[in-house]
Amino acid sequence: MDSAIELFCHEFQERLGDVYSQDIVRSAFADMLHDTERNELYETGIKWAISELRARGVQQIIVLDIGTGSSLLSMLAARHGADILYACDGYGPAITTARKVIEANGFDGRIKLISKLSMDLEVGPGKDLEQKANLLVAELYDTECIGEGLIESYSDAVKRLLTDDFISVPQAVTIFTQVVDSPFLRNHYVLSKHGLLIPSSIEECIGTSALHDIQASQLDNEDFDPITKPTATFHFDLSDCSKTPYTYSYELPTDCNTQKDWSPCVIMWWESQMAPDVMMSTAPRWVHPKGANLAWRDHWMQAVYQLPNISGRWLQCNRDEYSFWFNTTNDRSVSPKPFCTCGVHYSTSGYRNAYLADSSLYNVMCDSIKSAAERNILLVIEGGMAVSVSIAKAFPLKQFYVVDNQKVTRELTRNIIEMNGVKNCHIFDPENNSCSIELVVADVCFSFAMTPWASVQALDVILKSLNVQRVRRLPHTSYLMAMEMDFKHLYKIRSPIVKTVGLDLTEYSKFIEAAASQAKDPLETQPLWEYEGVARGLSIPLTKDIKSGAVLNFTRIAKSNGIALWMEHQYGEGNGSIISHGPTAPPSIGAPVLWNRYVKQGVILSIPDIAEISINI
């Protein structure tokens, strides 16, 4: 079966040109230039830095802009009187476009564009930079702050490219953390046992240091309880990142040391100092100085980290050059960077863990099996492990054969079967299977699926490879659904921008739109629960016949800025037998939608002003 999955995935490899074009759209455009607060605060910082250098008696202000992109920061520096400007970017097409943007704004001849990474720049007569810069402007942040090489880039620039008395914008950044109790977030990390014994290799595994980036402001108040106040954890003076310690710890409330029935996580964000009294914060709504009126961003979210230990007196905070990790300890000892030894944390995503922990799938599958007369049942649940075995245990008079396309979780499923003595549960082996499968019960949700309907197509491939085709299936029907949406902010990640802070970015928009036009499929996947929006139309079934190569037409009624797409899988009769990968309650026009929070939905955002949209399957 592994080879069948590889063949299925190979189909998507043929679309690399399409994916490449979409990557340009996502990385180069996104919502960053729509982030007015960001742009204004950068301008404030640059204006202050130039004034400060002038006040010090600096005769020539020489600017280095690292990772220039649209060259927005360079142009702001030019606007406020910088004398010599260098802007570098390792992505050649961005440099070509930046040149057009600079010319459109009347700064041609003032900014030297260099198609290199900053660490490849050379300084000296006739080289990339004729002399060292005394003003560094850069935007190298990501959600984790340091994940895109901020420390290495700044350290190299300070050492080789900048004068001793330089100023940088931003000047510094502070990492904040807050410990919360959240079963919802913890379920993205912990394998749900479903009442079974599980191997010690899973129980004792400390997982990985991978963060879960999330629009934390969209969490409901009921999703978490704050355990600590927001705490400044690491501070980076960008003129000398080596000053920042690699560890920090702070004391937790005393009851955390003995608490056993809780779900601790760390939520992290950062605050950037743009000028002495000017801060730019990525804090979530409950601690942000502007509260619910905070600036919306998708390029910088908040990060959630899981704790290997759930009890301890101290929160131990650790970092390296690119990442952070956290743990609770009783003695403030330094925790090694987590490394998954069981295989689950690498092979199963956080979304998938939380999806399997939710009781909906288990309940719907059990209800459908309860009413089924068939005795030999094939279960197809990617990474299901405990779910699959628990279902088999609930029906001792039936025989269950488990299919899993991942070797790691297949072996762990075998261990769980043996540990719990579930004798009617077996790993399906198509070459040595003596029984005749009578019923297939599948969770039509595969982590490798790039579109909502790809999981339906993948299930067909899997069953064909197993020679299990002409038997009854549950779900018996899978509908592709669509609904018009108006998103409050999400549309911005694909929306053209003409001007920001008084600068013309039309040429940059053209660059992104050209890449978007080369992408055959405008659809992408997003966790829509993280993005505010209201329904602008009814949810409509587009098809229940998922055929590769088909073209479906969706007629728009409202002038909406998005179309959401998802699958609904019918396992029995009535609404109680439906697994919806979209809304979890019937949507109402003009009202917010309650989305399934464990599955990403499809969404089309770059919508032309036409009445009918074609969707390629």
TrEMBL record:
Protein arginine N-methyltransferase domain boundaries: 206-309
PROSITE patterns per UniProt: SAM_MT_PRMT (PS51678)
Example GO BP: methylation
Keyword set includes Transport: no
Signal sequence, start to end: none
Transferase recorded as keyword: yes
Keywords assigned by UniProt, alphabetized: Methyltransferase, S-adenosyl-L-methionine, Transferase
SUPFAM superfamilies hit by this protein: S-adenosyl-L-methionine-dependent methyltransferases (SSF53335)
MF GO annotations: histone methyltransferase activity; protein-arginine N-methyltransferase activity
Family matches, as PANTHER family: PROTEIN ARGININE N-METHYLTRANSFERASE, PROTEIN ARGININE N-METHYLTRANSFERASE 7
Protein name (database record): Protein arginine N-methyltransferase domain-containing protein
Species of the source: Varroa destructor (Honeybee mite)
Record lineage: Eukaryota, Metazoa, Ecdysozoa, Arthropoda, Chelicerata
